[in-house]
Design goal:
The chain is mainly alpha-helical and 457 residues long. The chain contains 18 helices and 6 strands. The chain folds into 3 domains: 91 residues, Fumarase/aspartase (N-terminal domain) (Fumarase C, Chain B, domain 1, Orthogonal Bundle), CATH 1.10.275; 249 residues, Up-down Bundle (Fumarase C, Chain A, domain 2), CATH 1.20.200.10; 95 residues, Fumarase/aspartase (C-terminal domain) (Ribonucleotide Reductase Protein R1, domain 1, Orthogonal Bundle), CATH 1.10.40. A hairpin with a 2-residue loop joins β1 and β2.
């Protein structure tokens, strides 16, 4: 088949240039959306009388036949035809003759590729939203099951204050819920029809863009033809949302890696989600979590790649923008694969509850509770903080825990301390006392889980 621009050129495109510029090797995954968009376009051309109705019907029938061929693996893609659009158009013309050439009336590959990518991303984001909902549900179920289990909470990777394991799990549920909200909101900007912008200036043909939008399920029609073909904000926004999502995945993966180590010993990963060593027989490595952590960098790279591609482009379409698709495709693949396996890995973990609870009472984790106890006795917080610091220093020097001191020792630091101080230095008492909205008490966490479940519905 001749190039669509053959009338202007006298020399055939170099084979090396064809190999360098082709995109069919990766954009063929857009075939379903390209055909879907072309059918809607043909129906609009026919409805508007731009092409005869019988020609429109033949085009639609031909496109549906091509759809079946690709679906059944009988279609041959050609690098010589550059991209998915030209491959399908060439196949259509072979099937229905010159009538197939009418399909490109009032359309350019510039607005066509934007349409395909938007349709693809819309479907992909909806799939990711379902996966996120499944992950959030699983974390919420786990939090409800583990309600009452106490673990050490950390700041600076140092033991800080005791918290409920459920509270810790719900922290991640909240992160992924924000990811779901961001991606859901991005659909409003993805779900805008660019078709009809043509190359950049629109068309003199009496097209009905709103009709095409209704056929394809778009909520809006783009308002500026130049912006329509130059815009990749919707792809950048998706990549940005995906980068934040994978950052959250990486954080939970990092904690899985730490918690499964001998030094922490809080969890044991299932054999199904670990690997061994080719040299050391005793090893059980958290490779899946490590790969999740590393694949986050890959998604960041895709975002930076498209940002750099777009940053210097004048209006409107430039061939540089062909490089947008691999970044988007790879990110979709990475995110969907990760979210498909993460819930199963988390569900298969075994928690070493005794080890967690013993650790939650160590390292003076209830020192803040003593400071708050003194505040309730009438001392300014800074004074209470200083007194508590001296108590901790004394315990360190004597090799004692807060629970090991008797009341006379406590009174030597402040006469306001009474026997009821022993009611606040236990990890369970510390957790139970944190009843503030969003706090770690069982009462607060139970309420948080209830609110979260309503949001998930």
């Amino acid at each position: 088949m001749k190039k669509p621009w053959a009338g202007r050129f006298t020399v055939k495109t170099s084979r090396s240039v064809e190999d360098y510029t082709e995109s069919i090797s990766f954009d063929k995954r857009l075939w379903k959306y390209d055909i879907e968009g072309s059918i809607a376009h043909a129906r609009m051309l026919s409805k508007q009388g731009i092409i005869p109705k019988r020609c429109g019907s033949r085009i639609v029938a031909g496109l549906r036949e091509i759809y079946r061929e690709i679906e059944e693996g009988r279609f041959r893609f050609s690098a010589e035809l550059e991209d998915i659009h030209m491959n399908i158009e060439a196949a259509l013309i072979r099937k229905v003759g010159d009538v197939g050439g009418m399909l490109h009336t009032a359309r350019s590959r510039n607005d066509q590729v934007s349409l395909d990518l938007r349709l693809y991303l819309r479907a992909s984001v909806r799939e990711i939203l379902v996966l996120l909902t499944d992950l959030e549900t699983m974390l919420t179920d786990m939090a409800e099951t583990m309600l009452g289990v106490i673990i050490p909470g950390y700041t600076h990777t140092q033991r800080a204050q005791p918290v409920l394991l459920s509270h810790h799990l719900m922290a991640y549920a909240q992160m992924f819920d924000r990811d779901r909200a961001r991606l859901g909101d991005s659909l409003r900007r993805i779900n805008v029809l660019p078709l009809g912008a043509c190359a950049l200036a629109g068309t003199s043909m009496p097209v009905d863009r709103q009709y095409v939008a209704s056929l394809l399920g778009f909520d809006a029609v783009s308002e500026n033809s130049m912006d329509s073909v130059a815009d990749r904000d919707f792809a950048l926004e998706f990549l940005s949302c995906a980068a934040v999502l994978m950052m959250h995945v990486s954080r939970i993966a990092e904690e899985i890696i730490l918690w499964s180590s001998e030094e922490f010993g809080f969890i044991e990963l299932s054999d199904a989600f670990t690997t061994g060593s080719s040299l050391m027989p005793q090893k059980k490595n958290p490779d899946v979590a490590e790969l999740m952590r590393s694949k986050t960098g890959r998604v960041y790279g895709n975002l930076m790649s498209l940002l750099v591609i777009m940053k210097g482009l004048p209006l409107t379409y430039n061939r540089d923008m062909q490089e947008d698709k691999e970044a988007v495709f790879d990110t979709v693949d990475t995110v969907t694969a990760t979210l498909s396996i993460l819930p199963s890995m988390l569900k298969s973990m075994s928690f070493r509850i005794e080890r967690m609870e013993n650790s939650s009472d160590a390292a003076f984790s209830t020192a803040t509770d003593i400071a708050e106890y003194l505040v309730k006795k009438g001392l300014p917080f800074r004074t209470a903080h200083e007194i508590t610091g001296k108590i901790v220093r004394f315990c360190i020097d004597k090799g004692k825990r807060l629970q090991d001191l008797d009341i006379s020792a406590y009174k030597s630091f402040s006469p306001r301390i009474e026997k009821d101080v022993f009611d606040v230095i236990d990890a369970a008492a510390s957790v139970n006392a944190k009843k503030s909205y969003g706090g770690t008490s069982p009462q607060s966490v139970r309420a948080q889980i209830g609110r979260f479940r309503k949001r998930l519905k």
